[in-house]
Amino acid sequence: MSPLRKGTLAVLLIFIATGIGAGAAIARYTSTTEAPTPVPVHLYPGYWHTDGSRIVDSRNRTVRIAGVTWYGMESDYWVPAGLDYQPYTKIMDEVKLLGYNTIRLPYSNQLVEQNPLVTQMIAANPQFQGRHAMDVMDAIVGYAHQIGLKIILDDHRCKASTRKTVNYLDEPLWYAPGYPESAWIADWQSLAQRYQGNSTVIGFDLRNEPHTVGPGPWNLHAYLAQGATWGPYNGVDNPATDWRLAAERAGNAVLTINPHLLMFVEGLQMYPDGRQPSGVSTYWWGSSLAGARLYPVQFFVPHQLVYSPHDWGPWKWNMQWLRRPTYASIQQVWQEHWSFLTEGSEAVPIWMGEFGTCTNNPKCVDVQETGNQADWFHLLLRYLHDHPAIGWSFFALNGTNSNDHAANNGLLSPRWDAVANDALQQDLESVQGQTQRG
Q1: Where are the alpha helices (DSSP H) in 205-323?
Q2: Domain 24-429 classified CATH 3.90.1150.10?
């Protein structure tokens, strides 16, 4: 067994003895809401759907997605990172034993369309040498089914990243030269058919982080001419850039094949806002869902839509609203950009598909330290604790990136055999729980 910290080992002993998943740790922040009781994901059978602001299983019991993003398959190595260091089954066992129930698995359209041979970055997994990339994806899905994890496939980019562009997203839209929208939709249809009837694959994150390409300034012209838009502006829509319409086209094409898959729809980087001098409100890539107030995504199949913002702290970029944030002030920011979607008669679930913090500095995690990143991180944890229906996926599982360089924001160590930061794991355990109803 991996050299996990003592607290986690104690949880694993309970898991083995009782069959119950990792419990919620005592939160290291102030909250008056009792943490939900965790339930192992294998007790939530079948496909999942939505009910108002909740995601529910086939028995209508509320599920909190508590996941990790395991990236690397979107690179031209064609496999998730870490396979040089540990067998993929050991990495996935670690995910399960640490209390997570879902893996968000990024890939590229180039991988699906070319299905290339795997030849590198697999020193600890020699069985994949000379196999096709989709065989590796099949193996991950198959083992997830065996141990009771769910998989969310994430269309992360069109052309696979290279050694020079790893961890860099240079495609603002869901299509790119050589990869038209028609191919993007066909790739999703192919994956829906490939995993038809396999409820291990619980849903599709239709596109990672639509945004506006630089350079700035970030203003209304940039929004309209340099990337993804959402709905019409002044009554005029641009189908070539309207991400909402594209998500509907892809989602409907997938749901025609498998009406039980959850469709995760991310937001934009910016959206028109007449209150701002620039004419737009700017947020994180893929994270502003303000356009859904007037122009919500609508699929032919109801109860399969989940909105998926990404959210980050000042470690990523020191946005103005992150300077000395309070719980009240940061909630107002989230309310403006995405949390409003969980309210009212038209409520839709939220799955925070990416959030994270650095792991190589105590000021990024430890609440005992002072620093904006730790402050923001614990405000977010408090919010997740207070809103147990909101799902999430920590970015990232990775101890190394696709080039085998040590990651500074990964849950696991650079050898992929231990937790990199005990305090971080304890924090995430505190919001892993799912609630039961019905």
Answers
A1: 220-225, 243-257
A2: no
